[in-house]
Amino acid sequence: MKGALLSLIICLFLISPLCFGADLEGLQLLFASTNGANWKNNTGWIGMNESNLCSAYGITCHNETGRVIRVRLGGNDLTGVLPPELPQHLTELLDLNLYFNRRNPSNDDPGCTGVTGTVPVEYGEFKKIRQFEMSGNSFTGGVPHFLSKLVNLVATGWSSNFLTEPIPSDLFTNL
Description:
Structural class: alpha/beta
Number of helices: 3
Order of helices and strands: HHEEHEEEEEE
C-alpha cells in the first residue's frame, strides 16, 4: 500500500517514467490486438518503451505531462479487434481516431480488412475523450450506447461500417 501511494505521489508531482507504464501497456495491447506488425506504418511501435512512446507513429503526448492524449492510426491497415483494457491504461486520451483501416470501404463484404467486431463497453470509461472516429472499418452491431455518456465527446464517426442497429437517440445529447 505504501509503495502504491508513493508511486501516486511521484506521478502527481513529478514527470516520471512511473506514470507512463500504463500508457505503454495500453499501446502495446492495441498494437498486438490490431496486427501492428503488419500496419502500413508502425514506426516506433516495435521496441516501444516508456522513454520513446511519444515518438511512435500516430501518437501525441501532452507537452507538460507526457501522457498519451491522441491515438491517430487512420488508413494504417489495422486489423483485428479493439482491446477492452485500453481505457484503463490510456486515462488521459482525448482523441481515438482509427478511421478507414478497411482497404475497400465500399465493399459490402464484412470479411475485408479493418477493425472488426463491436467496440467494447469498457470504452465508455474514456472520461476525457473528445473525438472517437471509427468510420471505414468492419464494426458490426450498432453505434455504442455508452457514447451518450461521454460528456466531453464533441465528434464521432461511424460511416462505412457494417452497422445494423439504429443510432441511439440519446447520442446527440452531448454532441
